[in-house]
Amino acid sequence: MKILIQHLIILIFMSKKAGADEVIIAVEGEDVTLRISKPSSDGYMYWFKDSTRIASTNSLGGKFVEESPLKGKLSVGDNFLLIKSIGANDFGQFKCQIKSSSPQQWLIVFNVIKLKVGRNPTGPLLPGTDTTLTCEVETPRGLAQIKTKLKTPDGKDFSKATNVIQATSQYSGQWTCVANDKKEVSISVPVMDFTPALPYHYTSENSPLLVPFSFSSGIQLDDIKNVTQKIEWFFTPKTSSVAKKLFSLSMTKPFKPEVDHGRNLKLSDVTKGNFSLCRNQGQKTDAGNYTCTITFRNGKTLNASRQFEVLEIIPSPGAQLTSGQQLKLSCTTGEPLPPDMQLKWVLPKTSPQLLTDQHSANLTFPEVRTADSGNWRCELWWNNISLVSAVITLQIEPILNTWQLVVVCIAGVILLVLLVLIVIRCRRHKQRRLRHQFCRCKNPQPKGFYRT
Ligand SMILES: *[C@@H]1O[C@H](CO)[C@@H](O)[C@H](O)[C@H]1NC(C)=O
Ligand SMILES: *[C@@H]1O[C@H](CO)[C@@H](O)[C@H](O)[C@H]1NC(C)=O
Ligand SMILES: *[C@@H]1O[C@H](CO)[C@@H](O)[C@H](O)[C@H]1NC(C)=O
Ligand SMILES: *[C@@H]1O[C@H](CO)[C@@H](O)[C@H](O)[C@H]1NC(C)=O
Ligand SMILES: *[C@@H]1O[C@H](CO)[C@@H](O)[C@H](O)[C@H]1NC(C)=O
Ligand SMILES: *[C@@H]1O[C@H](CO)[C@@H](O)[C@H](O)[C@H]1NC(C)=O
Description:
single chain, mainly beta, Immunoglobulin-like, 4 domains, eight-stranded mixed β-sheet, 4 helices, 14% helix, elongated, disordered C terminus, binds 2-acetamido-2-deoxy-beta-D-glucopyranose, Ig-like_fold, transmembrane helix
């Protein structure tokens, strides 16, 4: 008792002498470190919480944590006291008293102040619903007022009278609670909404098909199961106005995909909040409007649509040509391209053709050569992003040109003449030989007849 009173007297005396108190703002559950710049190493250090001694160190390097409700959370070092995962009742005034062999003594006061940060209700928010953000401090009496403010996910000060916000995609993300322009704590506001997609969607028979539907804010299926009734996917072909249901996922029944209408589409990882549709390869009939609709238990719906076009190369007169023929290639989706889109042609390496305009939708070549055979590619670019490419394989057979034709004709004529000549000569030879034989047999000329 005597010692305690003695300590109290010292404390009162010291706190009058010591100047500014330190203010430490913390959130419940945080680790809080009270740090001092220790004047010398040969002293004793005592830590108090509301005048109860909770820890100490001595000049021999001894470190002690005293019996107190805080005991399990404390660690003490040469120049600090660490409170691990500070509890709701652990906030308040902490003091550090330093005694050394010199007559000098120090007393440092730490005001550990609770910052209340939160959101009500918790969990992902349905678009349009209200939520209240908390970012406040109860400044203890005698201390300068601690100011708090909220910052929106894009880093702007939120200066509204109330901290009630309506869940919109603009407000979705990490808010920040700032106390005294120093302490910052983030508040997650996950608004259920689809991640915005590129304004344009394309596929081709040479590219995969990926219809992107995913949740922003990393919301997963488990997070929304309680408030969701069903998720459905629809497709309206470009050539039709009737939406066909592709898949349906009910939260009450086990997952049961509806008829896919022969589109061979696959669902992505739905449990991870990825509701995209995909197929390894696009097809001509993929052009149209894809919609993903989420129906919530309160009757509200959330939906997103992705309009798809199919890029293809149309060869005229065809993909199988003979050299010398004219060729026209058209790279098109069947619709005019948005003005900020660009086409780019890639020719087979062997092709000697020079393009006057690499970005034109239509290419015309007066004559093709066998070297033009191979894969011709047309790429669609938007803002330095290659969206899709289409490929056509041209097959060009050689054909003889006029000079070659003339040479061949002449050679043919010469061959013919030679043949005729040979035949004629053969005949003559035969006739002569026949006549010879006849003469010899029918009119034998005795040798000595003329001589004698
Ligand atoms: C969903 O409901 C169950 C039971 O009602 C509850 O235990 C669970 O925490 C809820 N999940 C979410 C994400 O709200
Ligand atoms: C969704 O899944 C598809 C394929 O399964 C993948 O390509 C895509 O990157 C995924 N999206 C996200 C946001 O994870
Ligand atoms: C796609 O379908 C949705 C839902 O039917 C509709 O709201 C949207 O306007 C359609 N988009 C286009 C480009 O037709
Ligand atoms: C998409 O949502 C709007 C309202 O947000 C609704 O009017 C429309 O019918 C929905 N479309 C589909 C296909 O469910
Ligand atoms: C390309 O040719 C098609 C006809 O083959 C024509 O309809 C289209 O307007 C042409 N496009 C351009 C950009 O010249
Ligand atoms: C495309 O990339 C080039 C260089 O990489 C850059 O200079 C240009 O600004 C980019 N254009 C767009 C629209 O991003």
